[in-house]
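re: the backbone from monday

yeah here it is again, tokenized this time
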């Protein structure tokens, strides 16, 4: 049976650091990706996925409201995040340990890879919009997407991110610009990967014809571009505390 690697403090205490969260769940086959912890369980049928989901929800306990499941015929992707606070608390870490143990009892395993071929790990996709006047453009995107304020935000912050209320689409956030960019590209993708996945992901992008634009903020993020200059950032939780 799998056990947690740390003994988290009560939820009422100070927020856990990103390093504490990563250390607590890494040995359980989970990965921390800026605000959420996520893992996957490989299965051989949708019925098996449903059984995993049943067991996982049975052991979620106090973190039931933090739990999200994505069921497919070959995998279950499990996510834990406090929807009230938009972060990972000790409650979610403790639930991750219980979930990993319950999955182990089924003869399965929680692991960061989402496919049997190990093509990629669990990740979080965000879309960033560069804007000169964020309060002016944010309402448009909120309306046209049918999105709401991101977890942990009451909407009073004019630059707060936007989240899909049913958790199906990527988060949108707004990057403040000081002056118009001469390039056409004003929307870029943030691909938030586990910290131990970055080297492989960046190299794969470079091998596919991409180029490194800027690594000044690494290991928080690396800016990459395709052959026509369209940008994407590979991001981690590192370097943000």
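seq for it, each position gets an aa:
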């Amino acid at each position: 049976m799998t056990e947690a690697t740390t003994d988290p403090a009560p939820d009422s205490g100070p927020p856990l650091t990103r390093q504490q969260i990563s250390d607590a769940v890494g040995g359980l086959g989970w990965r921390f990706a800026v605000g959420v912890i996520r893992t996957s369980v490989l299965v051989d049928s949708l019925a098996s996925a449903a059984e995993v989901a049943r067991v996982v929800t049975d052991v979620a306990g106090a973190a039931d409201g933090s739990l999200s499941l994505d069921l497919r015929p070959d995998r279950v992707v499990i996510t834990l995040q406090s929807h009230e606070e938009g972060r990972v608390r000790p409650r979610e870490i403790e639930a991750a340990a219980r979930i990993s143990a319950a999955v182990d009892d089924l003869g399965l395993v929680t692991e960061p890879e989402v496919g049997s071929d190990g093509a990629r790990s669990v990740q979080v996709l965000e879309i960033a919009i560069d804007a000169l006047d964020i309060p002016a453009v944010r309402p448009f995107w909120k309306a046209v997407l049918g999105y709401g304020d991101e977890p942990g935000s009451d909407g009073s912050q004019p630059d707060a991110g936007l989240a899909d209320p049913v958790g199906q689409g990527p988060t949108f956030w707004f990057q403040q610009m000081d002056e118009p960019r001469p390039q056409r590209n004003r929307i870029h993708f943030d691909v938030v990967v586990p910290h131990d996945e970055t080297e492989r992901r960046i190299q794969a992008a470079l091998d596919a014809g991409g180029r490194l634009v800027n690594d000044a903020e690494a290991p928080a993020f690396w800016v990459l571009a395709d052959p026509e200059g369209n940008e994407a950032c590979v991001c981690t939780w590192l370097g943000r505390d």
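The radius of gyration is 19 Å. The domain at 124-235 is CATH 3.10.180.10 (2,3-Dihydroxybiphenyl 1,2-Dioxygenase; domain 1).
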